Amino acid sequence: MPRRRPSRSKLALRWVGAAILVLIALSYIHPLTSYRHARGEVSQRQTEISQLERSNDELAQRLMDTGKSEFVVREARRLGLVREGEHLFIVKGVGGPEGRSVP
């Protein structure tokens, strides 16, 4: 027995249903891409926050060290200050701390 072909109305209804399913699927594309983009930004911001927290901890430690006399002496030496009774000598053309010549 040969198989009957569906009527035109049923065939049209199937095409309309398929078109509706395609439209529904297409309507999900933008929200999904926005969601993926937002997740990437959140990950990036979390990395940035952890770096800033580390930097904040280092700065807090430096702030605690500022009241210590060793810190004051070290910073004064870095600025080229000398203690009373000492003489400052500047030697040029000698290798720097990393082994490169200082101009």
Summarize the structure.
The protein has 103 residues and is mainly α. 65% of the residues lie in helices and 0% in strands.
On the 0 to 100 scale, the average pLDDT is 87
Structural class: mainly alpha
Report the β-strand fraction as a percent range: under 5%
Show unreliable segments: none
What's the gyration radius in Å?
37 Å
Reading the helices and strands in chain order gives HHH
Q: What's the total count of β strands?
A: 0
Q: What gap, in angstroms, lies between the N and C termini?
A: 102 Å
The best one-word shape is rod-shaped
Q: In percent, how helical is the residue content?
A: 55-70%
In this structure, how is the largest beta sheet organized?
none
By DSSP (H or I, 4+ residues per run), the number of helices equals 3
Explain the overall architecture.
The chain is mainly alpha-helical and 103 residues long. It has a domain at 8-78. It has three helices and no strands. It has helices at residues 8-27, 29-65, 69-78. The radius of gyration is 37 Å and the shape is rod-shaped. The termini are far apart. The mean pLDDT is 87.
Write the topology of this structure.
Layout: H1 8-27, H2 29-65, H3 69-78
Question: Which short descriptors sum up this protein?
Answer:
mainly alpha; 3 helices; 103 residues; single chain; rod-shaped
